[in-house]
Write a structure and sequence with these properties.
There is one protein chain. The protein contains 6 helices and 6 strands, in the order H-H-H-E-E-H-E-E-H-E-E-H. The chain is of the alpha+beta class. It has a 6-stranded antiparallel β-sheet, sandwiched between helices.
Amino acid sequence: MIAGAGALATVVVAGIVAVAVMNEGGSGGSASDKPSETLPTPEDLPSSTAGQPDPTFKDEPPPPPPPRDFISDAKRDKAPLTVGTLFPSKRVSINGRPYKRASTDASKGCTDAAHAGLGPVLSKNGCESLFRATYTRGELGVTVGIAVFDDARTAAKVKKQYKPNLVALKGGGVPDFCRTVTCRTTANSFGRYAYFTISGRTNGKPSTAADTKAEQAGRDGSTYAYARILKRGKEQAAAAVGASPEE
């Protein structure tokens, strides 16, 4: 292998000398009649690999697949699914606003956690489970509901067909709220999950369109639901390649 490399190097050097001689001749100088005597022997030429370490390559795992791939279909979404995995923290901060978790609930039938408008929508689209948690901030209460379906297409259909309302969840020191008074609601979907919020005053007062604080609590609850579903996807994507999930 080394002799071959030397032979190649000899040819390259010889070519360089020949070009140099032609240039000298073109400028009026006399060409050497013994160019080969100035070339080193193959043994004198340095090996292209002598003394050089073998190349090394860093063994890096492939990047995780998109989190949405794991939360869009029940066949791939295999991580434990409970109120504990969806709503694990007793205290959360959403965009700098602190909330305290008061109570949680899981409904296999889905319809018993929804009012007359939303219940049939969940039922006809094959709702598997509906997980709820209520969070409070001062006199504000927001119940977050995450409904589970077989695939992303069905969840998106539920969002489009949405009718009020999610049943607000009492307990943990929070009285029955948003039952007979106006409250603020949201509906959305991400992957195979449809998620809803109902927010208002826990003191029984109505939350009209002018109640921007109750409206903000609903948006915060929706943001939190999205973040929890996304984290679920990230954890499963990271586990698929043996990496640590990104926050």
